[in-house]
Write a structure and sequence with these properties.
This protein is α+β, with helices and mostly antiparallel strands. The chain has seven helices and twelve strands.
Amino acid sequence: MVPFAYDPAVLDRFPAVVGGAIHAVGVVNGPTSATLAEVYLAEQAAALARVGDTPLSELPSLAAWRRAFRAFGVDPTGYRSAAEALLRRLTKQGSIPSINSLVDLGNLVSIRYALPVAIFDQRAASGRTTVRFATGDETFTDLGSGEREHPLPGEVIFVDEAGLVCARRWCWRQSVQSAAGPGTRTVLVTVEGHHEGAPADVAAAVADLTSLLGTHAGPSALASMIIRGERGAGDQASAVVGADQDLDKHRRGS
């Protein structure tokens, strides 16, 4: 089972949300390989061509995220969704620097679909991660500044069963504890959308992420799910990889 869920109150407020989640065990992270780097650079060029002169605020998926941010009281131009921030950097600077293989494959899929993709290291996580409204008592350590802070009551957060927040303002920024690094072995990967085409786009993004993880991170076990806000239920799929032959098949996305 994938340790991920939406709180009913979030689904009531945002019935159009579609969330995809992957739980991968036994991954290996490190510098991005030449093969992945080539694919990543090609996707950056393709994303630039797709966007062209269109303002990012007019892309349907990003416009929907802006509406979601406003709905829980956050200015989406002051705190941009992760997907918009990534594409903004790409369109302004012409490229996105490599971080590591896990982060790069997440960013690759994010710019491909203009949807936020998060790679959460699970070492510090306690139980299931839930997307819910903050009470203000939870704890968050900012990845950029390293400062410890509390989310504002009512903002949407990703939080575990111990009250440790791994993402603030829904898909704005991750915590220090959740950042994927060289020692990352188990990850929760999420991709979400609110726009009209979200069901198809999120499903395609989950399929791409599953394939990329299999090829470039070598998980020993992987499970995925799709949650549709309109019904509050998830469709789960899993793969436990054992023998070398099965692992090769899994990495090919078969």
